[in-house]
Amino acid sequence: MLKIADKTFHSRLFTGTGKFSSSVEMEAALVASASELVTVALKRVELKNDDDDILLKLKHPHISLLPNTSGVRNAKEAVFAAQMAREALETNWIKLEIHPDPKYLMPDPIETLLATEELAKLGFVVLPYIHADPVLCKRLEDVGTSAVMPLGSPIGSNKGLKTIDFLGIIISQSNVPVIIDAGIGSPSDAAWAMEIGADAVLVNTAIAIAGDPVKMAKAFKIAVEAGRMAFEARLGAVHAEAVASSPLTSFLDEQIY
Amino acid sequence: MSSFTDIFRQYDWQEVSQSILNKTRKDVEHALNAGSGSLEDFKALISPAAAPYLEQMAQISQQLTRKRFGKVIQMYVPMYLSNECNNICTYCGFSYDNKVRRKTLSSIEIMEEVAAIKGMGYDHVLLVTGEANQSVHTDYFKKTLDLIKPHFAHISMEVQPLDLEDYQELTPYGLNTVLVYQETYHEEDYKKHHPKGKKSNFQYRLETPDRLGQAGIHKMGLGVLIGLEDWRTDSFFTALHLSYLEKRYWQSKYSISFPRLRPFSGGLEPKVVMNDRELVQLICAYRIFNQEIELSISTRESVSFRNNIIKLGITSISAGSKTNPGGYAVEPQSLEQFEISDERSAAEIAQMISAQGYEPVWKDWDLSLTKV
């Protein structure tokens, strides 16, 4: 089971609430995904009233809310938004999204580091959305992040794991859970992320805009489970064959002394 | 400091016009396959040569829009604060030389309008005025923003262009988005259509988005009034402006609107008529050119056009709009800026959107995100 801060998760598939054609369809897909951590944009929900349609649909005992700060442009705004979320939604978990560039939604590493440090001091469980930057991941660990969420490719692009080599480095040296966020376009991408040792993936667009979001959610659920199982079964064995042929040193075995 | 004017001066209207007309089917096919987002590709997509490719363009546009924005349509509504205006604009119902009763809403009247708009379900309001700098000025806007801020998650403005300092002053009051349409990028014709008033200064208007960018505004809306001039050439200049702004003010979001000249009492006949097929072509061309741009459609368009455009690339829509100050509650019968075409209520439009498998989104911003 995956443990992040004080919570444990059976499912390693985290999901989001955007882009669905209706809140009813969103609820059905998220239930089908068996996801236990669902991110919701603060800007989309009505924090003042308790009859927000999205929030009502997320009221399932197995679902924890992960509010995100999408829309803020710097650390100061992010800290303020996180505090708002904590008050209104009664959770100290926050998905930190600081992308001042509204076109490609690229995360700002400097502001993200500053905000993570501040929020960790304030007692938040911080899950920052970042570029696949191994050094930034270590710096975030130093200031108290609870996990890291490097991107596979730009948000909503469905382009898959373009950053695969850097994700590998991040996973190999991380002391906190690594959640691959953004760009996962198909169940095979999700399975691949899990096979290389990601602790979890976050998928939204690929489910929400699928022809049949509920069926696609199930497909992702199975893919994530399969990928994790493959990782635990030690995929590494595949490399053994190539190594065994030893074309450069096999002559040593043939020599007669 | 340099501005868009420096770029704009490097182009010649006639040359651009001719270059769009010269685009061939081969150019269009390249634009459809390349996905490069270049301005030359955009020219091909808005050219007459692209007309036979309309269905293909619509399919690409739908797919790109769904990927980026999802199956959702943002809902907003205009609130006209004033029809006082010192400008003469040949196409506008509020033009200074038009004999209509002038009105600027008082605080009490604004709150009556707010109550009516909230009753329709809106959380995003667009404040609209003419240009009357003596009575409808930055202080008036500050007072209005202060009044309405507790009631809306997202506040946009479509008022006279202001100075950089004004925009800087208004942002902390909750101003998120400013729409400022160039009307036309044809400088000589611009002067014919705006013979009097501050609006006659073409360059000041042209540089307004620069000032907005410098003020760090969250979103700005661009566009031309379709019908004043050749829409293809005007749209090219809009795209040129957009490309410049995106690179320079990279922290701002952008939206495009496509207002087609509508009749009003004693109004101007369009010089160039754009038909529905051409408007669809333009919308799809923008989407293929720029996958992140927000595309907005107003109640100027007809019921059937609006029903069918939902799935083709549009991301936001207004509904139940009134284009007269006090139109929702205070003085529903006063003279409108232009006649709206789709008179269905916000609830009816929301239902129409849902019926097509899209979700109408009323709230997609929160003032607390900017600590307002």
So what's the CATH class of chain B?
Alpha Beta
Tell me the Rg of chain B in angstroms: 20 Å
Helical residues, percent of chain A? 40-55%
Radius of gyration of chain A: 20 Å
Report the sheet with the most strands of chain A, covering strand number, pairing sense and barrel closure. 5 strands, parallel
Name the CATH homologous superfamily of chain B: Aldolase class I
Strand-and-helix sequence of chain B, N→C?
HHHHHEHEHEHEHHHEHEHEHEHE
What attributes does this structure have?
heterodimer, A: 257 residues, 5-stranded parallel sheet, 11 helices, B: 372 residues, alpha/beta, TIM Barrel, 8-stranded parallel β-barrel, 9 strands, 40% helix
Describe the structure.
The complex is a heterodimer of chains A (257) and B (372). Chain A is built from eleven helices and ten strands. By secondary structure, chain A is an alpha/beta fold. In chain A, helix 3 crosses helix 4 and helix 7 runs parallel beside helix 9. The relative contact order of chain A is 0.13. The mean pLDDT of chain A is 90. An eight-stranded parallel beta barrel of chain B has the order 1-2-3-4-5-6-7-8, surrounded by five helices. Chain B has one domain: Aldolase class I (TIM Barrel), CATH 3.20.20. In chain B, helix 4 packs antiparallel against helix 13 and helix 5 packs across helix 13. Chain B is α/β, with parallel strands linked by helices and 372 residues long. The model of chain B has no long low-confidence stretch (mean pLDDT 93). Chains A and B meet through helix 3 of A and helix 5 of B.
Reconstruct the topology from this structure.
The complex is a heterodimer of chains A (257) and B (372).
Chain A: E1 2-4, E2 7-9, E3 13-16, H1 23-33, E4 37-41, H2 53-57, E5 64-68, H3 75-89, E6 93-96, H4 109-121, E7 125-130, H5 134-142, E8 149-150, H6 164-173, E9 179-181, H7 187-195, E10 200-203, H8 205-208, H9 213-232, H10 238-244, H11 251-254
Parallel strand pairs in A: 3-4, 3-10, 4-5, 6-7, 7-8, 9-10
Antiparallel strand pairs in A: 1-2
Helix pairs in contact in A: 1-9, 3-4, 5-6, 7-9
Chain B: H1 4-8, H2 13-21, H3 25-34, H4 39-46, H5 54-69, E1 72-80, H6 107-119, E2 124-128, H7 138-148, E3 154-158, H8 164-170, E4 177-179, H9 187-193, H10 202-206, H11 208-214, E5 219-223, H12 231-248, E6 253-257, H13 276-289, E7 294-297, H14 303-309, E8 316-318, H15 346-355, E9 359-361
Parallel strand pairs in B: 1-2, 1-8, 1-9, 2-3, 3-4, 4-5, 5-6, 6-7, 7-8
Helix pairs in contact in B: 3-4, 4-12, 4-13, 5-13, 6-7
